[in-house]
């Protein structure tokens, strides 16, 4: 949608659980990754042109496997920012500039985007495993020196309503909220704003998927996990009815209706499929969103989704907020979580 080469190829797009502005969406060190992959598949050469020619003739399966997740990430010693290696690069052609500067190319495309209420929980569980352990001794301990001013500022924003003796569950949920905001929600809201600001005859729609997780074993505070919306969008409650309840089928029916209407007409509320409530457009002056769960009604329409955190929190566009600073902020909030 953001590429100048996409004009005329389609009319609208939907982004779920991530956008081009997400901090993990671009490979910022493509040559370093190229050399890393080349070493793994036996193509490393001092001459970069020769090395690239070798990679072009390599087995695609071997190339793919060479970019698999590092074991240190699985063990919780890395950060989730290291998760995706094979991601797009700014090549000066298909992606000619930073994605935030390319939304004029999407002026004619209708755009729907949203996140799950706890998209970042599973990734926070990788970065700080103890948030999912009931017996973890959670303490708030200062590690501000790990991240400097950016971390201190983020800590102030996210801990402002804790009080002097915060509930350990609140502290753990805050870690998941940080990861959700930084990796998903904030960049999605910024993308929606940029699309609405640049739109010329196109419409913008925002949503928050908030159906509580069905995954067993997680703490009670865990909400909608990353990718949990997909089972409802693709009708799994109907194809596997014995493991779902009527409320899940209602949600599935609502999502299928909204999504197919948008695909056909550019408006999720208009089309062949009836919907439980009208979904207003997101505009420059009215940042409206639909809260999606099994009880959708007129009251499900709200505005300014986590606007305080979007404007003052962990903005992925801020250079100081690196993967290390994200990790440091989490540690600052949780302290050394005992296993």
From TrEMBL:
* Originating species: Dissostichus eleginoides
Q: Which residues form the Carboxylesterase type B domain?
A: 1-297
Q: What is this protein called?
A: Bile salt-activated lipase
InterPro entries annotated for this entry? AB_hydrolase_fold (IPR029058), CarbesteraseB (IPR002018), Neuroligin/BSAL (IPR051093)
Q: To which protein family does this belong?
A: Belongs to the type-B carboxylesterase/lipase family.
Signal peptide span per the entry? none
């Amino acid at each position: 949608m953001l590429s100048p080469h996409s004009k005329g190829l389609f009319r609208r797009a939907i982004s779920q659980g991530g956008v081009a502005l997400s901090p993990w969406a671009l490979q910022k060190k493509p040559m370093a990754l190229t050399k890393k992959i080349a070493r793994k598949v036996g193509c490393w050469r001092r001459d970069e042109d020769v090395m690239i020619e070798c990679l072009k003739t390599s087995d695609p399966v071997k190339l793919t496997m060479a970019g698999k997740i590092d074991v240190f990430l699985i063990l919780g010693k890395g950060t989730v920012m290291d998760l995706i290696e094979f991601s797009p690069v700014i090549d000066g052609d298909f992606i000619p500039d930073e994605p935030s500067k390319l939304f004029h190319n999407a002026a004619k495309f209708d755009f729907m985007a949203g996140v799950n209420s706890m998209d970042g929980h599973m990734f926070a569980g990788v970065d700080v495993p103890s948030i999912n352990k009931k017996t973890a001794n959670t303490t708030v301990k200062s590690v501000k020196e790990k991240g400097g001013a950016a971390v201190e500022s983020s800590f102030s924003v996210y801990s402002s309503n804790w009080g002097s003796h915060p509930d350990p569950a609140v502290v753990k949920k805050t870690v998941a909220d940080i990861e959700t905001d930084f990796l998903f929600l904030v960049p999605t809201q910024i993308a929606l704003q940029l699309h609405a600001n640049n739109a010329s005859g196109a419409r913008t729609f925002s949503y928050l998927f908030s159906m509580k997780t069905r995954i067993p074993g997680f703490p009670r505070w865990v909400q909608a996990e990353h990718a949990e919306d997909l089972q409802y969008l693709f009708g799994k409650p109907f194809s596997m009815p014995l493991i779902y309840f009527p409320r899940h089928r209602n949600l599935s029916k609502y999502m299928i209706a909204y999504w197919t209407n948008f695909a056909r007409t550019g408006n999720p509320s208009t089309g062949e499929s009836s919907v439980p409530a009208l979904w207003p457009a997101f505009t420059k002056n009215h940042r409206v969103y639909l809260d999606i769960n099994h009880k959708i009604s007129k009251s499900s329409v709200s505005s300014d989704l986590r606007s305080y955190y979007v404007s003052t929190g962990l903005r992925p566009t801020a250079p100081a907020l690196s993967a290390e600073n994200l990790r440091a902020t989490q540690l600052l909030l949780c302290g050394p979580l005992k296993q």
